[in-house]
Design goal:
The chain is mainly α. Helix 1 crosses helix 2 and helix 2 crosses helix 3. The radius of gyration is 17 Å and the shape is globular.
């Protein structure tokens, strides 16, 4: 765990959103961080699809970015079986 510096305005936005969503400020920040990370990894997805992905990741216990990336093929073009 680490400390992330954010602006006073972003902290106030987090405080307001966290109260509205019944989350702690840290939980709200983590939610926005996860959603933003997924939005960058999957720009073609809608917010609704990303929210569903967050739920699936939570159920699988795999919020690690290494588990969010598409799987690479285990063979390369040069391999001969």
């Amino acid at each position: 765990m680490g400390i992330v510096k954010i602006s006073d305005l972003m902290h106030e936005n987090l405080r307001i959103a966290s109260q509205a969503m019944s989350r702690s400020i840290n939980a709200q920040a983590e939610h926005w961080l996860k959603l933003g990370m997924l939005a960058e990894l999957y720009p073609q997805q809608t917010q609704h699809q990303l929210a569903q992905m967050l739920i699936r990741l939570e159920l699988e216990g795999s919020a690690d970015i290494r588990n969010m990336l598409p799987k690479k093929s285990t063979t390369t073009q040069g391999d001969v079986s």
